[in-house]
Design a protein that fits this description.
Elements: H1 4-23, H2 54-68, H3 71-74, H4 81-87, E1 90-94, H5 100-107, E2 113-118, H6 121-130, E3 137-141, H7 147-150, E4 160-164, H8 173-182, E5 189-195, E6 201-202, H9 208-222, H10 232-238, E7 241-255, H11 260-274, H12 280-295, E8 299-312
Parallel strand pairs: 1-2, 1-4, 2-3, 4-5
Antiparallel strand pairs: 5-8, 6-8, 7-8
Helix pairs in contact: 1-9, 2-11, 9-11
Organism: Cymbomonas tetramitiformis
Domain Methyltransferase: 89-196
Protein name: Methyltransferase domain-containing protein
Length: 313
């Protein structure tokens, strides 16, 4: 068992590791439990999805499709789908993953065309398979850092760009936003949905120190830019976009609700233990504690997501 004192020490040790990570250059990692290079284990797997092995890619594909059917996740669509359906004819999603957002938009009544881009060939192949029944939805393998070249053959008449939980996974958010501005004409819309993962928390009434450490470790192992949503007002202005409005939505599960944050933890816990920072025994102890909280209707996990609307200037 891990005491409150050892949980506090673990939290301090993790904080030092996070600080070191911020000063180091990383080149690769694996999301799978085995074979994770400890020096690289903290790198956001989504930021290097084009170079992941098949096992790691399939794990992420499973996670993306799982959350895509979760009512908690799909409720975020309500913050911008109505606007896109009413005001746009040609939409481009950057960082489309397996195409969950593109499919949902088309199936919600959007009659225009939708193009989804992602740097991972495995993600795009899955996206094409899942959307084969939708004639107005297409996908292409394009890196967000090289949009201008990647979408050249598709034209520059996109009237709406979508970035649904993309910016937190890129190494250089400003560069991606500038690149996005280059592929549209003045007046085009940009809609960004992103979480403030610095506030993501799994609570524990019985093991608060351990739970705090695991929450921070999950965030560090999953997001390249966990707090970038707070920088977006400035980043948008610096990259040729004018912010129109923004709103926030708390995504939480409380009591015995446990689906969205369950699949998130299950997908990325192997990277936490594989890093060597937190042992498998400690991860298992935390997970058992979380499951017990669900059983006792005492579970609590939350994160605030924001939707930004901007216009190309």
């Amino acid at each position: 068992m891990i005491s409150q004192v050892s949980g506090t020490l673990l939290s301090k040790q993790l904080a030092r590791t996070i600080a070191i990570r911020a000063r180091t250059t990383r080149t690769y990692c694996q999301i799978s439990t085995g074979g994770v290079d400890q020096k690289e284990a903290w790198r956001d797997p989504h930021s290097i999805s084009s170079s992941l092995d098949v096992q790691s890619s399939q794990a992420i594909i499973k996670r993306l499709e799982s959350r895509g059917t979760d009512p908690i996740f799909t409720s975020l669509f309500d913050t911008y789908f109505p606007y896109v359906i009413e005001n746009c004819d040609k939409a481009l999603e950057i960082g489309a993953g397996t195409g969950v957002v593109c499919r949902a938009l088309a199936e919600s009544g959007f009659e225009g065309t939708v193009l989804g881009l992602d740097q991972s060939e495995q993600f795009i192949q899955a996206a094409r398979d899942y959307a084969s029944h939708l004639p107005n939805v297409n996908f292409s393998v394009v890196d967000a850092r090289n949009l201008k070249t990647g979408v050249k053959s598709f034209g520059s008449d996109f009237d709406c760009l979508l970035m649904h939980t993309l910016i937190s996974h890129v190494e250089d958010p400003l560069a991606v936003l500038r690149e996005a501005r280059e592929v549209v004409e003045q007046g085009a819309d940009l809609i960004i949905v992103e979480g403030d993962y610095t506030g993501l928390s799994y609570h524990s009434a019985t093991k608060p120190g351990l739970s705090e450490s695991l929450s921070r470790a999950l965030v560090t192992a999953t997001f390249a830019q966990p707090g970038v949503v707070r920088d977006l007002p400035a980043l948008l202005r610096q990259s040729g976009w004018s912010l129109n409005r923004a709103s926030g939505k708390c995504v939480s599960e409380i009591g015995d609700e446990f689906s969205y944050w369950k699949s998130f933890a299950q997908a990325y816990m192997p990277r936490v233990s594989g890093s060597g920072m937190i042992s498998q025994e400690q991860v298992d102890e935390w997970w058992a504690d979380q499951l017990e909280h669900v059983k006792q209707k005492q579970f609590f996990a939350s994160c605030t997501y924001y939707t930004y609307f901007a216009t190309a200037v």
